[in-house]
């Protein structure tokens, strides 16, 4: 659930802008003295009587607070209810508790009984709880997070910096009044509310933290679980197995929400994480350890022996690791945006990236999001690696020292037995006989991991009961299950803005409790065609398209007819290092121009305008014919739709691959210099989009060379050991025009 906190300062400016007289404390920071309280209430009355705002939402959001501070609680509640009914808030799952801290305060103030304020507050609190119909009660705590002392300090700072000669601007007066009512409510109600919420939780749930499981090999796995006290009989259990610590208030609240649906909720962590004293080695032992946790769960008195798993990214990988040696208690999994270890992380198509080190540095006993999110630091490291041209296997030294996991991964540039031992591989899939729901997105960086598991499950198990959901989502949306109406500048179709978490628990109800299959899931493959505002379903991926568009890459054109053989030359000078990285998050899916970094040292091929509309459904494939003066290169391909209005729509996540592995990702086969070679294009990103009449397709083709990639200099040595000294003469590529791309389409 996504919470919009209506607690403190929003940028809600009103239409009048003159200064207002306000007698401050003259340097006295005691905001509880009688004079200040009188002055702030007089200021609030002046603001209230002159306040207007053409933005209805901002008007209601401010004015209800002004009325409550003025002691006009009925009008305060009236405008709070008006706020709840504005379109952007009305449909929210937690609409019932928007502004609940203000509502309870006002109702308690309106209570005419001769009880103490604490007793009045408890009465209105209990009435409110009993009136809640949905899951809102599990998120009440989120509305009482502001600390009285913190608010007091903020107000004191505000008084010292924003009051000049006993005058305050109207916008600042609005902010000050909002600060003060938030402080007043925190001061008078937080302790009461927190006690009531804690008592409510104790009555409903049992939360057991700091549990340690000792494995058969004597290793430690830490976990915590949440049980619903109201349900006495053994229940099915939902396990999330992660390398990220998730025992904060949000995860506990989410666990209670799901426990309220009739499940035991368990969060377990990889070795070395949280309370485990073992060495941290991500991805290494999940094949064993997840099943140890499942076995432990199945033997608890509160368990009915049925376990389901959920989670995304790493937590999607851990589900698939568990299926390599399937425990009989594991009845279903819902992996989303699942890491395909060795398939799309830490390498994709046999190409490593600096991101792998960035990720490793935040995997600690307590997840170090601060380090991971320090964009300035990581941009500096990436750019230093790029500008100095050091070997990729020295990247960890730029961060601060040898990272043994990083170095170990680099020893396996082929998809060899190391990677194969950590995830289901080939015939392992034949034994996976449980129902599975996979979720991913067109722009999910781990889509290819999700597709690896899906494709191989169907390939090796003809009876695979595997459902698949994919839409216009990035990695975080697929992982969290929380979608939004926009993704990187693209306003997604309204039907794609769905609650993936709700669908997931409907799936659990279906498999673990014998209820109906989720209505949303129509067939085995469920995909949203961007630009149509429709979902479609099919029995399998190969049924979602009925023909292919084949384009030959002829100089600057995408042509449907094979041309007479010719070539275009591209030179890449690996010694030139001017294009440093300025941001990690400036890409747009829909824009008036092609993303500038996609164009650096790329060839651009453009089709003719299409006479009719059609749907692209699936992953593009093809063969590139090229000769180079070196022994290897890492190719990159991006595909755009050029719309009739001149805008550019990026159709898929970027594809890249090491040419020497294009035949087989388990064995490197170096290219022969100056010989025409065939480079197979495969394992590309799935997409679905309606291409409009008069649109064009644009393909960008080139070689990986930027601060955020492992640079392949083409010597034929281990790429991780190459340095800028190996650049020597520029890479010369002859791209032959019998190279082609095939795009799966559906056309009536």
What structural keywords apply?
748 residues; 21 helices; 31% helix; disordered N terminus
What is the gist of this entry?
The protein is α+β, with helices and mostly antiparallel strands and 748 residues long. 31% of the residues lie in helices and 24% in strands.
Helix-strand layout with pairing:
Blueprint (H helix, E strand, L loop, with lengths): L18 E3 L12 H17 L5 H14 L3 H12 L2 H4 L9 H11 L6 H15 L16 H15 L4 E3 H35 E10 L5 E9 L6 E8 L6 H11 L4 E6 L16 H13 L4 E10 L1 H10 L6 E7 L10 E2 L2 E2 L2 H6 L8 H4 L2 H14 L6 H5 L4 H7 L6 H4 L15 E8 L3 H14 L5 E9 H6 L5 E2 L2 E2 L8 H13 L12 E5 L4 E5 L8 E8 L2 E3 L7 E6 L17 E2 L4 H4 L2 E5 L7 E6 L1 E8 L5 E9 L5 E3 L4 E4 L18 E5 L4 E6 L4 E8 L27 E6 L3 E7 L2
Parallel strand pairs: 5-6, 5-7, 7-8, 8-11, 11-12, 12-15
Antiparallel strand pairs: 1-2, 3-4, 4-6, 9-10, 13-14, 15-16, 17-18, 17-31, 19-30, 20-25, 21-29, 22-28, 22-31, 23-27, 23-30, 23-31, 24-25, 24-26, 24-29
